[in-house]
Specification:
The protein is of the alpha/beta class. It has 2 domains: 97 residues, Roll (Ubiquitin-like (UB roll)), CATH 3.10.20; 150 residues, Cytidine Deaminase, domain 2 (3-Layer(aba) Sandwich). The chain has 7 helices and 13 strands. The chain has a 6-stranded mixed beta sheet, with helices on both faces. Strand 10, helix 5 and strand 11 form a beta-alpha-beta unit. Helix 1 packs across helix 4 and helix 5 packs parallel to helix 6. The radius of gyration is 20 Å and the shape is flat. The chain starts with 6 loop residues before the first strand and ends with a helix.
Length: 293
């Protein structure tokens, strides 16, 4: 049985017809404990698969590493006294000279599939200073290209097609719209970490000139993760939060919400979207408009 798409017994009921008992495919969800040098660092609820990408991306998101060579090894290890390896414990080794995470600023690291920030000591603790800046990223994209991306993301969601219960994050080349990588998970933050971890392991950080598209809403943490990886544009098919908008503007990232062909709402960095001759609101114009409204 697949741990990514396990089956469960269900009763399917339609009003006016007899109930039917059958097997249904659901999205897998299991805990993953991350250890650094043998010490427990984080536990997250995730969909099994691409665990090494998830772990590497998580370390990038937390500001612990920025290059693949700073992570010297990853291996599954036994987590229980009965010596059974269920592949839910991953031990990470940082390269010599890479400082371990600061326990005083780390979260009480248990994250659920719905909230990647649960347990943070304060909102200030997650405003991690990124090693990369997106302010001068020259990315420019047309509205037509952006509008086409949700359809490409949906077509590539193979596990969602079976279960209907997974978030997706996809990375595209901004100039051409080429899909570089897509990852699915029960947690939207996990899906993003898997994408960033893939990029780290491929030696692609910082991710200049790329677009990150997520299948759900855009939270503060997703903007933060994108900034930490040097991604200049984050798009979501649903709404952003107020803090997500504030952080995107603070870091000069382009944030697009409600991206559904043929329309979208640009919350930050509108100068990166549209044909070169299009007239768009500058950041200062946007601020003046908001003060009047």
């Amino acid at each position: 049985m697949s741990r990514i798409t396990p089956e469960r017994s269900v009763v399917r009921l339609t009003v006016g017809t007899p109930p039917k008992r059958e097997r249904d495919t659901v999205a897998g969800e299991e805990p993953l404990e991350l250890r650094i040098g043998g010490r427990s660092f984080a536990v997250t609820m995730r969909t099994p698969g691409a665990d090494f990408d998830l772990a590497a991306g998580f370390l990038v998101s937390e500001g612990i590493i920025t290059r693949a060579e700073q992570l010297s090894a990853m291996r599954y290890c036994v987590g229980n006294s009965d010596e059974t390896n269920e592949y839910n414990v991953l031990d990470l080794s940082l390269a010599q000279g890479v400082p371990p995470p600061d326990e005083s600023s780390a979260r009480a690291f248990f994250t659920t599939s719905s909230c990647g920030l649960c347990g943070k000591a304060s909102i200030d603790a997650v405003r991690t200073r990124s090693a990369f800046s997106v302010k001068d990223d020259p990315l420019r994209v047309t509205a037509d290209l952006l509008a086409s991306l949700p359809g490409r993301l949906r077509a590539a969601q193979k596990v969602f097609e079976k279960t209907g219960g997974l978030h997706a994050a996809a990375l595209f080349i901004g100039q051409t719209g080429e899909l570089l990588v897509l990852r699915e998970d029960v947690g939207r933050h996990n899906a993003v970490d898997k994408v960033i971890g893939w990029a780290l392991r491929e030696g692609r950080l910082p991710l200049r000139g790329t677009i990150l598209l997520v299948s759900g809403r855009a939270s503060f943490e997703l903007v933060q993760k994108a900034v930490m990886a040097g991604i200049p544009m984050l798009c979501a098919v649903s709404a952003p939060s107020s803090l997500a908008v504030d952080l995107a503007r603070e870091t000069h990232m382009t944030l697009v919400g409600f991206l559904r062909d043929p329309s979208m709402v640009i919350y930050a960095g509108a100068e990166r979207v549209g044909d070169p001759l299009d007239v768009v609101l500058s950041h200062s114009d946007t601020e003046r408009f908001e003060r009047k409204s």
